[in-house]
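SEVERITY: medium
COMPONENT: batch folding queue
REPORTER: lab tech (J.R.)

DESCRIPTION
The queue accepted two submissions in a row. Attaching both inputs and their returned C-alpha cells so the on-call engineer can compare them side by side.

ATTACHMENT 1
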Amino acid sequence: MIRTRPQLAMPYCPGMPVRKRPTPDDAVTARRVLLDGLACGTEMSGLLGELAPLHPRNNTFPGEVFLGLAADALDWCGASRADPLALEGIRERFLPERRFRGRQNKKLQFAVLAAAALHGGTEPDLLDEIAWWQTDDFWEYALFATVAYIRAAADRAGVPLRQACQELALRPMDPTP
C-alpha cells in the first residue's frame, strides 16, 4: 500500500486566476487607512472591515506594514532602552474594546513583541511563529498591536490620538510589502 501525502496547496493550472501579490501601493494604502481611521475614531470592527480587502488569503500582509508602523510609533514617542514604554497592561489600557482569550492572548503578545523587536533593530521570524497558528489572522493581531502602540505613544507624548496619527502619517515608510 502506497501512502501519499495530502496536498496542502492547489497547484496552478492554466485558466486559474493568479493570486494578487501585495504591491507597494497596497502597503501605503494599508498604512493610510489605519492612520486615517484611527484619527477619525473608527471602531476596530470598522478598521478590520476596511482593511480586509487588502489581505491576500494565506499571506501575512498587511501585518508587516502594521508592525513597521507600530515600531514607528515607538520611535515617535521616544521609547528607548533608556526610557522604555511599559508593556504591562497595554492590552487593558489601550485595547479596552477587545476581549482576548486563550491563544488569542499569545497571538497578540507575539505581535506586540514583534513590533518592539523591529523598533530595536531586529527582524522577527514571522513565518516560523505563525505557522503553528494554523489560521490566517496574523494581520489582525498586528493591527491590534499597532493600534495599542499608537494609542500608548499618544498617551506617553501627551497629545490627542488624532495628532499622533497625523504626525505618524508624515513619516516615511518602507514601501516594500
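ATTACHMENT 2
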Amino acid sequence: MRLTDDRYANEKSQFDLALRMIGHEARTGTITECTGLSDDRIRKLYGTYFRSGTGRRVRRRRGKSPQQVQFFVKTPLNQLEATTLVALFAANLLIRVDAKHRMHPCWPRPDVEYGHRLCRAYETYQLLHPSPKLSFEWAWALLQHVTRNEELYLATCAGCHAAYVQDAYALDHAECPACSIALKTPSAAGPPAPTRSKPARV
C-alpha cells in the first residue's frame, strides 16, 4: 500500500509540475527534462487543459530552447532582469554563489523539485517585473548558462559594488545595469532652477 501511495504522490507531483510549466509556455523538451513525462503525455495534458477557448491563451512553443548568451546583456534592462533572476535562483537554492562571485549548481540534474523551484523563481521575477523581457524558456537557458560558468559570470560594479550578469566575451565597463539606467534617465525633478544674482551694492 505504501508503494502505491508513493507512486501516486510522485505521479501527481510530475503532473502538477507539467501543468505549471505549460502555463509558463515552457517547451516540451524542458518539461520532459524536469518531469520525466513523455512528449506524448505532455501533448495530451496541453490538449486537455489548455487548448479550450476558455481562460487565458497559452501558446505551445516548439523547437529548441533559446541559447544566445548575448540576449541577456543586449540592453541594460535585459541585463538587470537577468541579474534579478540569478538572485532568485540563489534564493531558491538552485545555485550557490561563492565569495568570488562564482556560481555553482546545487542540483546534479533537473528533477521535479528543481522544476518547482525554477517556477517559484520565475513567478517571483514576474511580480518584480510586471512586463518581463525574459520568457520562462529564457530563464531556463540562463540557469543552464550560469551553472556552467563559461560565457556568463557575475561582474562587480565600480560605482555601487553590486554584482551583475555579464558576458565573458564582451567588453565590461564595470557598470551595473541599474547604474547605467539611472545615468541615462532624466531626473524627475527636472533641471535646477536658475539662481537670481543679487544686485551689487554701490
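NOTES FROM REPORTER
Confidence is low (pLDDT under 50) at residues 197-202.
No errors were logged for either attachment.
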